[in-house]
Write a structure and sequence with these properties.
alpha+beta
């Protein structure tokens, strides 16, 4: 086996995805791939708790060569496969089935980030179904479905139920829906989001759409711009929302797409709570800017998650979803969560184990964002705040498709605050404990 490095720029991979009945939980995949070596694989991320990774759900896999003659294909663990004989420059044909029972098991961040079935709606990530090559630079995906079924994803549409992607990340790091469900288009300023939800949430469409619309308007004002896509990506975003009373509630952002699972149907509430339905929605929508548009070159979970959480609460407060008393109580609770989770390590180092250091990253990052916001306001006599800091990062990095590093954050803060940064940024590089004044 050889490492996947070279790029075949002349051949385009193709997939045919067939679903005949959502409730059967079977997805049939046929693929034509042009590998540059003898190894193909599913995504190496997201299913590391399983011995065979995403391949744990693959059945009846077969491979053929250019002449449509059967060739050997063997799993080598971690979602990777090796086939033989291998002939350089020749395509192979795959045929396999995905047994979509991901929601029957446990996942580190919930099955919403893998695949599940809700009513007559199949929600699946690209991770869950595609075997690919890491050097793929173009592929088409064609869906064969019953006439009554819909297909929704964030890819560029190039035909009826046919789409194009430009790299492996775009192929696997996405969420899509297949089946019978509801959707509505939300267009606010320069942002277009297709909201997808199961039939049981139909009566809550107006409430959910209103929150998303208002949140997008606020974020466009905060960053002074819309979410940024690469030149090859579709300009649309997809947000999938469902409910599972047995789940704590949460969301995940993929390339141009969001998967959200609430633990109860939306209702009127005025609480500043991490698990409230409107906070989950507004937090995940915020990642279209911090995480999707602003992308980091290194691990900065404290900023991606902690600052996004802080800004989500600020948006909720601006939208009068809770009052000042709730705001103060929220900050007190975050300090308590951080204190309880504190292990003598910095919030930056905590990001090396996101699952194990959840409250250090989210609550600690939020507290640090509050300190940053307060320091900027004090030093500029309330002429500037954290919004100006984020606008600076957005204009310099998101709009120019550049990745940022920690020092870029420090420079942006210094230029916004017009102050020295040594004391406040000690929280990131030392074990100094964060305490709100």
């Amino acid at each position: 086996m050889v490492q996947l490095l070279s790029i075949n720029s002349f051949a385009q991979d193709s997939y045919i995805v067939s679903v005949t009945d959502v409730k059967s939980r079977k997805v049939q995949i046929k693929a034509q791939l042009f590998p540059n070596n003898d190894t193909i694989q599913m995504s190496p991320f997201g299913a590391n708790h399983l011995k065979d990774g995403w391949a744990n759900f693959v059945t009846h896999i077969g491979a053929k060569n250019k002449l449509k003659q059967e060739i050997s294909i063997q799993s080598i663990g971690g979602g990777a496969y090796v086939f033989s004989p291998y002939k350089k420059g020749e395509e192979i044909y795959l045929d396999y089935t995905i047994n979509l029972i991901h929601d029957k098991g446990k996942w580190p961040f919930g099955y919403k980030e893998a695949a599940y079935v809700r009513e007559n709606m199949m929600v699946l990530t690209g991770n869950a179904i595609f075997i690919t090559r890491l050097d793929m630079n173009s592929a088409t995906v064609n869906f064969i479905l019953p006439k009554r079924y819909l297909i929704t994803n964030a890819w560029k549409e190039v035909g009826i139920n046919k789409f194009k992607v430009h790299n492996p990340t775009e192929l696997v790091w996405t969420v899509m829906t297949i089946g019978e469900y509801n959707f509505t288009d939300i267009i606010t300023g320069g942002t277009k989001i297709k909201l997808v939800y199961s039939n049981s949430l139909s009566r809550k469409k107006k409430m959910i759409s209103s929150i998303i619309t208002s949140a997008v308007k606020e974020y466009e004002n905060i960053y002074m711009g819309k979410p940024v896509n690469s030149s090859t990506q579709s300009k649309k975003f997809v947000c999938v929302v469902n409910v599972d009373s047995g789940y704590v509630g949460g969301g995940a952002v993929f390339t141009n797409s969001i998967s959200i699972m609430l633990n109860k149907s939306p209702s009127l509430e005025h609480k500043a709570n991490t698990r409230s339905w409107h906070h989950i929605l507004i937090h995940e929508i915020g990642h279209l800017w911090n995480g999707q548009s602003l992308k980091t070159e290194q691990q900065n979970e404290w900023f991606v998650e902690g600052f996004t959480d802080y800004m989500a609460y600020k948006v909720e407060y601006k939208l009068k979803l809770f009052d000042t008393t709730e705001w103060i109580a929220m900050l007190k609770l975050k300090q308590e969560e951080y204190n309880k989770a504190y292990k003598g390590i910095s919030i930056k180092k905590a990001g090396n184990d996101k699952a194990g250091n959840y409250d250090l990253i989210y609550s600690g990052g939020l507290l640090f964002a509050q300190l940053i916001d307060r320091q900027i306001q004090i030093n500029t006599e309330n002429k500037k705040n954290i919004n100006d800091f984020l606008q600076l990062l957005y204009s310099e990095f998101a709009l120019s498709y550049k990745l940022y590093v920690l020092n870029d954050i420090i420079v942006a803060f210094k230029n916004t605050c017009l102050c020295e940064t040594n004391n406040i940024f000690e929280y990131l590089v030392t074990s100094k404990k964060i305490e709100l004044p």
